[in-house]
């Protein structure tokens, strides 16, 4: 009877924990994109890059807009643009994303606006001169296809004392949202853990009972 009560209390406590997990909001998953394109300019250390380019970047779509204007969104979304262009590969940090919904729609992922000293700066620039791509200046849930933009390029520059010395430019031919890998549901993980814990408790109880039974028989 004591064993049943112990298991019942464990399950009741687990039920309370399950309720907490159920009501806790799930964290927002970052949005990722994969880009493919063709190298059009390769100068300096980028010489020999290409001909093809693959790149990717990830950002949090919950990043707030720091620009109060109605036609331009500025988001302090930090991350890296990872790229491979033949024998040339690297990762360049970005610090902001801009979305412009105006006569000319633009989506821009960029690092420092004014490079100072020795640095590497990357910029992904998508421009639709018709102004029909974006319906607002909010971060888009899904970027349109590359063909929707008149200009779609990824540019990487290295600077020495603030002067550009190396340049890589690639035309972006395709934009694909990265498939999200679903994480196990919290309740599923909780159920697995509770099941294992309850089974282990029952096994310990049975082991103690067997030990008691053996001792009783030995005494008789």
Helix-strand blueprint:
Layout: H1 2-23, E1 31-43, E2 52-59, E3 72-75, E4 79-85, E5 88-94, E6 96-100, E7 105-110, E8 119-128, E9 151-160, E10 163-177, H2 186-219
Antiparallel strand pairs: 1-2, 1-10, 2-4, 3-6, 4-5, 6-7, 7-8, 8-9, 9-10
Helix pairs in contact: 1-2
Short description:
The protein has a domain at 37-177. It is an alpha+beta fold. 25% of the residues lie in helices and 39% in strands.
Question: How would you describe what is shown here?
Answer:
With 220 residues, the chain is of the alpha+beta class. It has a domain at 37-177. The protein is built from two helices and ten strands. The protein has helices at 2-23, 186-219, and strands spanning 31-43, 52-59, 72-75, 79-85, 88-94, 96-100, 105-110, 119-128, 151-160, 163-177. Strands 3-6-7-8-9-10-1-2-4-5 form a ten-stranded antiparallel sheet, with no helix packed on it. Strand 4 (79-85) and strand 5 form a beta hairpin. Helix 1 runs antiparallel to helix 2. It is globular, with a radius of gyration of 28 Å.
Uncertain regions: pLDDT < 50 for 5+ in a row? 2-8, 17-24, 183-192, 212-220
Question: Structural class, from helix and strand content?
Answer: alpha+beta
Order of secondary-structure elements:
HEEEEEEEEEEH
Question: Cα distance, first to last residue?
Answer: 25 Å
């Amino acid at each position: 009877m004591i064993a049943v009560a112990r298991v019942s209390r464990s399950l009741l406590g687990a039920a309370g924990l399950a309720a907490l997990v159920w009501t806790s909001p799930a964290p927002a998953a970052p949005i990722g994109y994969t880009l493919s394109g063709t190298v059009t300019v390769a100068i300096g250390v980028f010489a020999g890059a290409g001909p093809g380019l693959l790149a990717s970047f990830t950002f949090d779509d919950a990043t707030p807009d720091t620009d109060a204007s109605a036609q331009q969104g500025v988001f302090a979304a930090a991350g890296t643009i990872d790229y491979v262009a033949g024998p040339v590969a690297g990762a360049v940090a970005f610090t902001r994303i801009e979305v412009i919904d105006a006569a000319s729609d633009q989506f821009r992922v960029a690092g420092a606006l004014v490079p100072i000293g020795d640095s590497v700066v990357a910029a992904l620039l998508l421009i639709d001169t018709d102004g029909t791509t974006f319906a607002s200046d909010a971060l888009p849930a899904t970027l349109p296809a590359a063909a929707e933009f008149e200009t779609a390029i990824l540019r990487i520059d290295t600077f020495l004392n603030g002067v550009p010395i190396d340049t890589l430019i690639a035309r972006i031919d395709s934009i694909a949202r990265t498939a999200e890998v679903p994480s196990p549901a919290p309740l599923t993980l909780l159920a697995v853990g509770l099941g294992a814990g309850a089974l282990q408790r029952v096994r310990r109880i049975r082991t103690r009972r067997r030990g008691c039974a053996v001792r009783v028989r030995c005494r008789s």
